[in-house]
Amino acid sequence: MRITDYSWHDFAALPLDTKSRLLAQSDGAPFHTLFAQQFNREMLDELGTLATEIRTIAKSKTGMKFLQSLLCHKRAMLYFSQPSSRTFLSFLSACQILGLSTGEVRDSATSSEFKGESREDSVRTFSSYFDMIIMRSRQKGLAENMAWSLSNSDRPIPIINAGSGQDQHPTQALLDIYTLQRSFERRGDLRDRTVVFVGDLARGRTIRSLSVLLMAYPNIRQVFIAPPQLQIGEDMLASLDSHGIKYELGDDLRAALPTADAVYMTRIQDEWDSVVGESTRIDTTQFHIGVDEMSLMRPDAVLLHPLPRRTEISVEVDHDPRAVYWRQMRNGMWIRAALIATTFGFGRRIHEYFREDL
Amino acid sequence: MRITDYSWHDFAALPLDTKSRLLAQSDGAPFHTLFAQQFNREMLDELGTLATEIRTIAKSKTGMKFLQSLLCHKRAMLYFSQPSSRTFLSFLSACQILGLSTGEVRDSATSSEFKGESREDSVRTFSSYFDMIIMRSRQKGLAENMAWSLSNSDRPIPIINAGSGQDQHPTQALLDIYTLQRSFERRGDLRDRTVVFVGDLARGRTIRSLSVLLMAYPNIRQVFIAPPQLQIGEDMLASLDSHGIKYELGDDLRAALPTADAVYMTRIQDEWDSVVGESTRIDTTQFHIGVDEMSLMRPDAVLLHPLPRRTEISVEVDHDPRAVYWRQMRNGMWIRAALIATTFGFGRRIHEYFREDL
Amino acid sequence: MRITDYSWHDFAALPLDTKSRLLAQSDGAPFHTLFAQQFNREMLDELGTLATEIRTIAKSKTGMKFLQSLLCHKRAMLYFSQPSSRTFLSFLSACQILGLSTGEVRDSATSSEFKGESREDSVRTFSSYFDMIIMRSRQKGLAENMAWSLSNSDRPIPIINAGSGQDQHPTQALLDIYTLQRSFERRGDLRDRTVVFVGDLARGRTIRSLSVLLMAYPNIRQVFIAPPQLQIGEDMLASLDSHGIKYELGDDLRAALPTADAVYMTRIQDEWDSVVGESTRIDTTQFHIGVDEMSLMRPDAVLLHPLPRRTEISVEVDHDPRAVYWRQMRNGMWIRAALIATTFGFGRRIHEYFREDL
Question: Can you tell me whether residue A78 is helix, strand or coil?
């Protein structure tokens, strides 16, 4: 069966692992990247290796020229109807590193949509001019719908979901995993660890995707620390249960910190408030990391944050070597370059260059 | 006589064929592309051939590298004060295919215009930094005025009109002609055909430009189907009369469809309403193509639409092989690449590569 | 001592010449370009020479390919939170000439800032993805603060100030000096000249920076012609006094014009009005140059303007060969390319190519 054998209605209703198989190319790499669940342990390791190779190759001008020659014949559309400088610039840089030309629609006011065109037609328009669409949207499931739609057109091109609605932000999860891999590689790998998630766990799509990917690693204990109103959703807990993953819920950050190998902080996602100001009525003062809280963390633990931050991590913490969030952000550029290269089947060529020509 | 021998006032008043001669380079190719009437049959055929060659060359990475090397030393300014994702991205892609770097001003809010600068000075500014200006504006005649102005400056660079006011959108006409050429090439060429225009013929600049270009082909019958309030302008009919072109007017789409070799649908251009909501008082329900209407069309007829569409063509029609509007949109990218290459005198180099190196 | 040995508070309080030394690379070229005072006579001459070489090399396609190969492995971020098409496009073009890829944040509405991120974090984000930040802001001292902040991070990358607040716009001053150098090179160099500044001298940061750079040249007489309310600030006069520079103040343009080697016109900077409309109550009708005023200028004098202009220079004046403001604007692109090349240490490579390969 292929994706084109399903109606949109039937495809949308399939279980995630079936969808993942349908979305894979013959070498298992995803054609469309839509949700974190598409990536198994083997693929995560492969992407991490590739990202590190690209990072290393990019250190020299000769290496950069090699990388830029790989996809210089391709063009990518960055369709960001939900604003995000960070994810946008990270993908833009990843494209530039691999030599892709880019076009962009970032602001719906500059688009044709005001002329009453459907989103389906807009995306199909982009597919006429470009070889890949990287899209971000407030609308849940839109990337998936567009991927199905393109796969059924006479110009199927890959889509990468750069964040859709509150549910999925798969490349953020990839960069988080990659950051954890790198943080722990000096002392073993990503197994038998405790990861503490803190903040707005109800609405942060980042932590949902990361929590899912962590299930691919042996014996990861997940701890969710949040105000009761912002605690992780029941559906996520059910998913963890069904996979036999150990987890704990709580609202006492200071008690959880000494147990953590990694702390994953998030900000309050008040742009999703159903009533303006709703979030401000929740007391979040206890869900903050300053120099004091850092002193409770182990010497070899790491502190992550998807950024942007507000006040949940003090600026003073930035100089602590355990604060890896700036490196985490730069990791995003490398893992996205790895994903794009893989999507177009250039992973092997990069491995070869790394082994033989560097 | 050259364009610099005229004041703006005198130049603007010249007949179109005189202007066309003044705008041509020594090889006849336009220096500035301002209106559809500049293109005669020979030039349309040359551009179509070149577009097809570029499309073919672009299929391989080697070919793309050749194309990108042609104009890598040039930079183009995309000045779109009237928003349009579609035309913008099409030109952007055409530039990228030929290796031009690009800059853009799409939103007047981000421009210096708020500081009280005249449009003339803005365009002259762009000419300081770029080697070509591709401009789109709501203001009738602006592209022509800017072209005259640049030709009289000490840095004359070519302008391509990407749509100005309600009157001219010459590259849309080029892509429409190219699509008709390709649609009919299997069974002869673009002569002795019936083209049925449908929709808002009063305000759609696309159909005005296409109607003009069709006069270059022998024995094309033009049929205009629209609500009376949106019927084609008297000036267009006078122009058809003066060239001895056969045409018909009507408002019965179902009667016209069986006679058509090509149907050119357009949407209601309500952004040009003089009173908001004006268009909604016109009954346009009969000017719609669905699966039923397709059944009235000949098996070898084609259905075009400049896009974006609203409801005037049902989504179900997209899968009909006679619906060529998505291909038409991609044709726009290739014909624009052909036009830009021609403007810079690189047409011959592409022909050579196509003949000898492909 | 290095910049990292100071707290921000201590660094900000240092005298400009100390800051300049701290900001210089081992070859004396600035690492960060923050204020006009960083550039001494020798550096200004070197940049001017380099700009002219780049301009000459860029005339051929082979030369453009050489230039584009220099920094093709680098990426620059254009962070323009204060809108400016002109400066933006000039820097964009300079980057493209040298082969840098670029990203941009031009409109704060499309940035992450709405999520409550600090500017410091935004700039640090950009530094994660790019190799240089070119920034323009309404906020006085922001570029300097960001430069200090980046120099103290684990990813120090150069910043170029493309205009900050009312105080500094160093690359505008560089292009003004370069234009004066070129204007006078036929008849000696930039010494023993009278430069007349006209217009809004209180708020135009351009003239402040240029006035400072002119102190590097021997025996330049500076004349400031403005309505009393918009006359040059006391701090500037104190600075001129302390360097023993001759200057005059006045409000009679027609009297000053015959004495000028160069006239530097500026527009009323009403975007800095503390009350809307404040500037309109000042009579500026005498601070205008038309054909009549040109007749008062010497045959070999030159007329500059940083642009955009409003009505302070009549359009008719554009055709006078002494009106060099359009060339001045294009000079901006070349001098910025020279500055970027120098920042990355590629000045010598360009000199070599110019001497040996052209």
Answer: strand
